[in-house]
Design goal:
Its EC number is 3.5.1.10. This protein is an alpha/beta fold and 305 residues long. It is built from nine helices and 15 strands. The protein has two domains: 78 residues, Alpha-Beta Plaits (2-Layer Sandwich), CATH 3.30.70.260; 194 residues, Rossmann fold (3-Layer(aba) Sandwich). It is 34% helix and 30% strand. The strands form four sheets. Strands 9-8-7-10-11-12-13 form a seven-stranded mixed β-sheet. The longest helix has 24 residues. It is globular and about 60 Å long.
């Protein structure tokens, strides 16, 4: 707020009223991908201009190797529109250029978190959510252990214990899908959830489930990864946040974090550094996904940071 002093009081400048008006404006994000060809950006900007919208942020990537265009445009305006209405009116343009596209309003993505015994990623997600920097809205925590019930409930989040055994795995996954529907979750985050999802569940959650892997590249799989890293004398500890696919820990990569280490780091020190990397990579991936900054491109991603 900008204030000016008068002889007897402080009064607000007219700019403040303009600021309030801007805050009330509808805000949207358009994302699209298609074969690269002339006229795409002009068609998008003309569409928005004709409806009285103002472009606030525009990013695009022209992939010359794959001959594709990826675009993210954030825009605002005072007219009353819904994402569905914009999609209907934009469809003729999308058909002309054979676009894969979507419009999003300011409604926050609803995030369901799954966790096992390691709680550092869950704790970091809760901290960022409560601080307003996560980009999404945590709605529930699901776990195959009771370990982090107190952490979730202290944050005001429902905690659902879903035990998993080889004999109950199918029932547990069906329960997960029911919880996704019940809490209207847009995104499922595996925050060190130490269960391998079935191929069928991976397909049903395609593009809306993010996992954190304790390595810069898919390596040191299985138990005690930081002991394996110590035995190999690693010089960098990293973590990879990626979309969940049937190929274990090899889905499209959203974000990676790397921290340099040396010979003085034992397994416990490596684990501590690794947990920091995991929390950072995962929170960024969740935020970028929730802000519609990640576009899937076959087995990879385009991320407009």
């Amino acid at each position: 707020m900008t204030l000016v002093a008068s002889d007897s009081h402080l009064s607000t400048l007219p700019a403040e009223r303009g600021q309030l008006k801007d805050e009330q404006a509808q805000k949207f994000v358009l994302t699209l991908s298609c074969v690269e060809q002339p006229g795409i950006v002009q068609a998008v900007t003309t569409f928005l201009f004709d409806r009285g919208f103002n472009i606030e942020e525009h990013q695009q990537f022209d992939d010359s190797l794959r001959q594709t265009l990826h675009l993210r445009t954030a825009f605002s305006g005072g007219q009353s529109y819904s994402p569905d209405q914009l999609e209907d009116e934009f469809r003729s343009i999308a058909d002309r250029f054979d676009m894969k596209f979507s419009f999003h309003d300011q409604t926050k993505q609803r995030v369901l978190v799954m966790v096992s015994k390691f709680g550092h990623c869950l704790n970091d997600l809760i901290f960022r959510w409560r601080g307003g920097s996560l980009g999404g809205e945590l709605v529930a925590v699901v776990s195959n252990h009771e370990t982090h019930r107190a952490m979730a409930e202290a944050a005001g989040l429902p905690f659902i214990h879903v035990p998993v055994t080889p004999d109950t795995k199918a029932e547990a996954e069906q329960k997960l899908l029911e919880l996704v529907d019940e809490y209207k979750a847009d995104l499922v985050v595996l925050a060190r959830y130490m269960q391998v999802l079935s191929n069928d569940l991976c397909r049903q959650l395609e593009g809306r489930a993010i996992n954190i892997h304790h390595s810069f590249l898919p390596g040191f799989k299985g138990a005690r990864p930081y002991h394996q890293a110590y035995d190999r004398g690693v010089k960098q500890v990293g973590a990879t946040a990626h979309y969940v696919t049937a190929d274990l820990d090899e889905g499209p990569i959203i974000e990676q974090e790397v921290i340099r280490v040396d010979h003085s780091y034992g397994p416990n020190a490596l684990s501590t550094v690794g947990q920091d990397a995991e929390a950072l990579a995962l929170s960024r991936a969740v935020r970028w996904h929730c802000e519609h900054r990640v576009l899937l491109d076959r087995t990879s991603t385009v991320v407009f940071r």
